[in-house]
Amino acid sequence: MTDVSILNVLLHGAPIGTLTRVAGDRTLFAFNEAYIADENRPVLGLGFKDQLGELITDFRPTQTKVLPFFSNMLPEGHMRSYLAARAGVNPAREFFLLWVLGSDLPGAVTIEPAEEEAWPSDAADDESVEDRYDHALRFSLAGVQLKFSAVEAARGGLTIPARGVGGSWIVKLPSREFAGVPENEYAMMTLAQMIGMDVPALRLTDIDAIGNLPEGIGVLKGQALAVQRFDRLSDGTPVHIEDFAQIFGVYPDDKYKRGNARSIANVIAAEGDEADIAEFIRRLTFNTLIGNADMHLKNWSMIYPDRRRAALAPAYDLVSTIPYTPDPKAALNVSRTKRFDEFSEDELSHLAAKARLPRKLVLDTAHETVALFHQHWKAAKASLPLAGDVIKAIEKHLKTIPIA
Questions:
Q1: Cys-Cys crosslink for 90: which of 122, 129, 297, 387, Cβ 3.0 to 4.6 Å?
Q2: pLDDT single digits (tens) 80-111
Q3: ∠ CA(26), CA(32), CA(38), 5° rounding?
Q4: CB-CB neighbours of 346 under 10 Å
Q5: Catalytic site positions
Q6: Does residue 1 carry a pLDDT above 50?
Q7: 3-state secondary structure of 328
Q8: Where are the domains of the chain?
Q9: What distances in angstroms separate CA 397 from CA 180, 235, 288, 290, 372, one per listed residue?
Q10: Left if phi > 0, otherwise alpha if psi is -120 to 50, otherwise beta: which for 211?
């Protein structure tokens, strides 16, 4: 393994800190003095603030992994293995993954070697460094699903950039395990938009219509889902975001185990306004109604439109999971329970009290969301690309939810 020792961390293109790899595969993070001294500094993350709102500057070294904030920018599962294999990097060694993928990360963070370094690799000796560099895709999208950043092609449609870097759309490919997941997500996101939620532009597209799909992804059936990136402006300028695993300092492996809707609501109430609180309750209720058991910490995010003030980011990853893996529980507790059949006025009132949210706003928003869901569901299930078993699963599920 090439001895790459220092990576520069940039925010909005300006250096703010370093990641340094030392003996024993340990990594240290430190802010630059200039960033620390800047009273008008752009916010890297809410987890870097103490209880008084002051910048935290002392961090423990990490072993093999990097700090949770940076770890959560990397892909998981099959997506991580795929990108690491193309670059010839051990997927467990996160410092080197950031070296390879850091030029196009979620939000406005980029990571680059402090000096010109040889390409890091754990690959077999019979593969040249040049081949590994040519095959590498140098972007990162968090999560498990196989997906790529894409650009609008000159003649219409979407195409994957040669290095995977850049693009204002995310193309989410069909699942190998479950049929119709892109269609399901498209339908649920469209329904959420009908109800009034903040949803980015999206569309379904044929696999064959996507230009420059990389090799090695296998044979895929069905359509892909294209979602416009809300962390990129129309001219490609990055907009900073962070998910709640980053905010809470939780590694991706613990995204189901730590935190709950109440703790997320606490942050939104402290950082946002009543509109953000209402939007949060709207999404919480909606995901309960559709039976989305996968709304973990990484599926909620904050966004920094002015680089300093945090607001609730647009909705994403809204999928009815119960047709594939029937589950009576949500990914996270609401306040005291994660059971869908205990999502009631009482549970929402408890959430409001513990998170210090206006009870009337919480209950009125939940009831309004239920009413709008029933109003639009009848037409949506007939017009949107939903399989019959998905419709049946949702309608059976709705009968078990007290507030519905």
A1: 122
A2: 888 888 888 899 999 999 999 999 999 999 99
A3: 145
A4: 13
A5: 294
A6: no
A7: coil
A8: 6-135, 147-228, 249-398
A9: 19, 43, 9, 8, 17
A10: beta
